[in-house]
């Protein structure tokens, strides 16, 4: 019989949870006598069950469970979404889904240990970055940030570090997605940056950077060449939050002078 490893008790303490002594100390700190008493104080009485166990049916096999789930899923109604503002339905042809996105070559092309698996991931990221540079018309792409709003906030801080302008103001077009505006405001609050939201058609205030939406949050497409030239003359950098899939048809931001481009890769087939 194998003897327990010397660190067995330490492993349990790290991964199983607090010990009985820890639990008693924590309960005393919040002023309750037991976990049951804590539950009774926290959980509303109308949903708290005093039964010793849940009266659940017996286990089901995988095939039965999947069949039941399909019956439930069939009750869903798939309706057309008119939310817009960066949230769009997607469809990926199965030939692309299987041969590119689900291609096992990304994760089985090498012997199955971490350094070699990482090579497949790096290859996929390199192809993603190359596609992004082609679509945006810019020289460099990262891979990548959490979402479009976070990327827009990072574009603001990048412009702040690089811009020659003395102003502490960052101009955000009123056509930028509202969720992006909120994240930019939140990030700017702790950095001493003043966010000015307005209509770029009325001219730009003194600022170190500009954030535009291309296409607009509600679908409009504008020609920003003159605006970008005006911003550059004052030392400001221009960031563009864009629909990457739309850039397959629209003129890439890099072609009309944008310094930074961000966008959500959700448009490449990730469902809402």
Written overview of the protein:
This protein is an alpha/beta fold. The protein folds into 2 domains: 1-57, no CATH class; 77-272, Aspartate Aminotransferase, domain 2, CATH 3.40.640. The protein has 10 helices and 5 strands. The protein has helices at residues 8-15, 20-30, 35-42, 62-73, 94-101, 105-108, 114-136, 148-162, 178-189, 225-233; strands at 169-173, 194-198, 209-214, 237-242, 260-263. The protein has a 5-stranded parallel β-sheet with strand order 2-1-3-4-5.
Instruction: Count up the helices.
Output: 10
What overall geometry do the principal axes of the alpha carbons give?
Answer: extended
Mean pLDDT: 88
Note the run of SSEs as H and E. Answer: HHHHHHHHEHEEHEE
Largest sheet: 5 strands, parallel
- Percent strand equals 5-15%
CATH class of the largest domain: Alpha Beta
Number of domains: 2
Strand order of the largest sheet: 2-1-3-4-5
Q: What CATH architecture of the largest domain would you give?
A: 3-Layer(aba) Sandwich
Under CATH, the topology of the largest domain is which? Aspartate Aminotransferase, domain 2
- Low-confidence residue ranges: none
**Proportion of helical residues:** 40-55%
What's the β-strand tally? 5
| CATH homologous superfamily label of the largest domain | Type I PLP-dependent aspartate aminotransferase-like (Major domain)
Specify Rg, calculated over alpha carbons.
27 Å
Structure classification? alpha/beta
N- to C-terminal separation? 53 Å
